[in-house]
Specification:
156 residues; mainly alpha
């Protein structure tokens, strides 16, 4: 339960920080500045600690739900199952099918040798979609985290 709550809470914090501060902040930059900063942050965040925190809820939440089921705590089990579904659909699936392809598009683009029109077009094809996907991840992870916390308080 602790691993599920801590890892999901930390991911909710990461997604919230990007939604609340990072993307609005770099959104104020010109196209080259925005794309360069975004590309750099995308590379930096892909590290072992991030991957552990990102994927840990995928295992920890269902395992916790199973343990609550074994204890006979059906209400907590249901909350945990919903938390797991929210995390998988809203964080894992959205990241894999939405954010990662946009990150890959940015990564494979040679920004230095792109002209102003190409940079503007690339930014317009990435920015709004990426921010929407991240907002979905933020809401899903916060809801998942909230259900995990609530499930601690639920008795049989």
């Amino acid at each position: 339960m602790i691993a599920a709550i801590v890892s999901t809470g930390m991911m909710a914090g990461i997604f919230f920080t990007w939604t609340n501060a990072v993307t609005p902040g770099i959104g104020r930059l010109d196209d080259m500045g925005y794309l360069t900063a975004f590309k750099s942050m995308n590379k930096t965040i892909l590290n072992p600690l991030f991957f552990v925190l990102f994927f840990l809820p995928l295992c920890a939440i269902p395992l916790t739900a199973f343990l609550k089921y074994q204890e006979g705590n059906q209400p907590a089990c249901i909350l945990l199952a919903v938390a797991a579904l929210l995390y998988v659909a809203g964080c894992i699936c959205v990241t894999v099918s939405g954010n990662v392809p946009l990150n890959d598009l940015l990564e494979k683009t040679d920004l230095i040798n792109s002209n102003v029109q190409q940079l503007t077009q690339l930014r317009s094809s990435i920015e709004v979609k990426w921010n929407l996907f991240n907002l979905i991840r933020t809401v899903a992870s916060v809801m998942s985290f909230s259900l995990l916390v609530i499930s601690v308080c639920v008795k049989r």
